[in-house]
Design goal:
The structure is a single chain. Helix 4 (118-158) packs antiparallel against helix 5, helix 8 (250-267) packs parallel to helix 9 (290-307) and helix 9 (290-307) runs antiparallel to helix 10. A five-stranded antiparallel β-sheet has the order 2-1-5-4-3. The chain folds into three domains: 3-122, Beta-Lactamase (2-Layer Sandwich); 126-237, no CATH class; 246-396, Heat Shock Protein 90. A hairpin with a 4-residue loop joins strand 11 and strand 12. Helix content is 48%, strand content 21%. It has helices spanning 3-14, 22-37, 108-116, 118-158, 160-185, 187-205, 211-230, 250-267, 290-307, 363-375, and strands spanning 41-46, 52-57, 76-82, 85-91, 95-102, 246-249, 270-277, 283-286, 315-324, 327-334, 379-384, 389-396. The protein is of the alpha+beta class.
């Protein structure tokens, strides 16, 4: 196996099972597999009760999914979508994965990789389904809780004996609520343990696990298991976390992105320059991680463009965050020479991914466009400067 194929296989393998939420877990798997194998569209379906879409990424395309489970003689099915695209279907025990590739991409390594990950994918999906079942039971217990609380009020007014009986019933219901809290509180450490253990196993199988990595990962697993143990006594006072949107500081989100890319930028001798940073904290309402993903995508594309640039001057990326009226303007500029005007209006198109890799564009920019425009109700566009390309993001601020 080539080094590049080994890297792709490791990244795809590591994306499996990092969450006990089925949608989040499959979104990470589909997104990683698409980025690493240059798919232009990816989707996953649940097969436990008919065919139910879990997640899809990329431009929506029309294909008949209803009769596919009956067509499989093997786990893999390949169909031609049109003259330049192929659809790859991969059937699991309880799920179906769909990817669309350019016809020029060799699918042999990709198919072999999918088959090698079959067992882990099945286990990860089964774990998510078990959590979903637990959450359903918790929901039913919550309904029962509300009903019983009303009954408690009535029984207290009748007599003390019934009050004692209702008190016993409430203990059972509180236990049900406790189970629901455990399911949420333990997701992150359990995912971390699963990731570390699977990573150690993969490295061991490839004979690349050294003593330092073994002890570091083992200590992390021990730390997470100790955390699980320590939180048992705190569950009754635990406030259930919400997956809803919350207010975040844009400057902090961007600083986090800079920290993530700093090492890779240093390897390529790329300087990061802050032109202007608004001193006033700028708040925006969104799900944590979405804006960070946009920043990382643009910064990664700038790095790729500079890496492939023949410009011999000092390579740099400049950024600024400014407030104007009720909006914030975020700019990220590089000195890689700019984007060809003939293709500049196509860089947010997912079909552009496999044909212009040297431009540093692809599915990441398409996802960034989707997040900024469709989820954050802002704008994102690119313009050429005398130095290179400048991405501009406009976002509405919280009043």
């Amino acid at each position: 196996m080539l080094l590049n194929e080994l890297s792709v296989s490791f990244k795809c393998h590591s994306s499996i099972g990092n969450s006990l939420d089925l949608t989040s877990m499959m979104e990470e798997v589909i997104r990683t597999f698409m980025q690493e194998t240059y798919a232009i569209y990816g989707a996953s379906y649940l097969l436990t009760n008919g065919i139910e879409k879990i997640i899809s990424i990329g431009k929506e395309v029309s294909y008949n999914i209803d009769n596919l489970p009956n067509k499989f003689n093997d786990d893999i099915l390949i169909e031609k979508y049109n003259t330049h695209l192929n659809i790859l279907y991969y059937k699991l025990e309880n799920a179906l994965i769909v990817f669309i590739y350019d016809k020029n991409i060799n699918l042999n390594f990709i198919i072999a990789m999918y088959k090698n990950f079959k067992r882990k994918l099945n286990l990860a999906i089964d774990s998510c389904l078990n959590v979903m079942s637990l959450e359903k039971k918790n929901y039913e217990l919550n309904i029962l809780t509300n009903n019983l609380k009303e009954e408690v009020k009535k029984e207290i007014n009748l007599n003390k004996e019934k009050e004692r009986q209702i008190s016993e019933q409430l203990k059972i219901i509180e236990m049900g609520e406790l189970i629901g809290n455990i399911a949420h509180q333990w997701r992150q450490p359990l995912s971390a343990i699963s990731t570390l253990a699977s990573g150690m196993q993969l490295k061991k199988e490839m004979n690349i696990l050294n003593d330092k990595e073994f002890f570091d990962d083992s200590n992390s697993i021990i730390k997470n298991t100790q955390y699980l143990s320590d939180t048992i006594d705190e569950f009754r006072e635990y406030i259930k976390q919400s997956h809803r949107k919350k207010d975040l500081i844009i400057q902090k989100r961007f600083s986090s992105a800079i920290k993530i890319v700093t090492s890779s930028y240093k390897e390529e001798n790329i300087k990061i320059i802050e032109e202007f940073m608004e001193p006033e904290p700028l708040k925006i309402n969104l799900i944590a991680g979405e804006l960070l993903q946009v920043f990382l995508s643009i910064l990664d594309n700038a790095k790729d463009a500079l890496k492939n640039s023949i410009n011999e001057v000092e390579k740099w990326v400049k950024y600024s965050i400014k407030k104007s009226s009720k909006k914030v303007y975020i700019t990220i500029e590089d000195n890689a020479g700019g984007i060809n005007e003939k293709i500049k209006d196509k860089i947010f198109n997912p079909y552009f991914t496999t044909k212009h890799q040297s431009q540093g564009t692809g599915i990441g920019l398409y996802n960034s466009y989707d997040i900024v425009v469709n989820r954050l109700f802002g704008k994102i566009y690119v313009e050429n400067t005398k130095n290179g390309a400048r991405f501009i993001i406009e976002l509405p601020l919280i009043e």
